[in-house]
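INFO  loader      accepted 1 record
INFO  loader      residues=339
INFO  predictor   begin
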Amino acid sequence: MKARAAVLIAALAPAGAWAGTLVVLNKAEATASFIDVDTGKVVATLPTGQAPHEAATSPDGSRVLATNYGTAAAPGSSLTLFDVAKPAVVKTIDLGVYRRPHGVVWLDARRALVTAEGSKALLVVDVEAGKVEAAVTTAQEVSHMVARTADGARAFVANIGSGSVTVVDVAARRVVGQVRTGKGAEGIDITPDGKRVWVTNREADTVSVVDSGSLDVLSSIETKSFPIRARVTPDGRHVLVSCARSGDVAVFDAASFKEVRRVAVKLEPGAREGRLMDFGASSVPIGIVVTPDGKRAFVAHANADVISVLDLDGWKAVGTLKAGKEPDGMAYSAVAAKP
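INFO  predictor   done
INFO  writer      dumping tokens
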């Protein structure tokens, strides 16, 4: 399976078997690709701000919100809101003084939580009004990704520079805890029951499991090499971790905290010039999206410019999709994008 020869989804399943839209952010092109997951075709490519990093789908699936992180010379300070069905850019949200938005998750139908790395803050953004409603200072370095409990009561922010997780009471809009997990704490996700927070510590080569109530670190699992994102499957049984340096995806049993397998994805990296992460022969898998039925996962390989498709029943790579240059953050919607 070669990086330059994308295998269309239509070849993997009967027509109509898979529905919905995968929105892929292409960091190096400042664009978002809307892919029909039934056919594997790019339906539309729309503009974003510079270096878009993460995306999240609204609760009803109709909209996707993207963070415009910016470049080294020009830090970003905006979000792009998309209508999935049309597809179209609905608006650009100016974050004012808050710099380098990165992680994003919807809080409810109207509001979203967004990390602002350059401001050491977690923002509550009123998407409808297009403004920052509140900002909670994390007091930590490089506040990167955010996850929240299902009820929206608590948010957890992974801080790369501090090797920690900041715990925020969303309603009170205040920090209620700081948990040290490991150097380079970056990826983060929460089990559906809200009891366990999984954190990837990329520099420490570990994955930490945190009790969301007591905030105790229950386990720190050695995980080679450069674990960068975590995604819990909808049934709560497994956790997928992309390993940027080794180029594969580690799979953990969520109950035993043990790595149970690796899913190898053989992809050839593209030209190294201009890449943010140069890991030699690795395709650099980063972003992970799991479909709501838990049967498929999409993994963005930033250095190969493709998205691999994983079958989570057989735990194997079954195809690739092509978006733009340096894909990273992604969002899935059951809504079909129409050209």
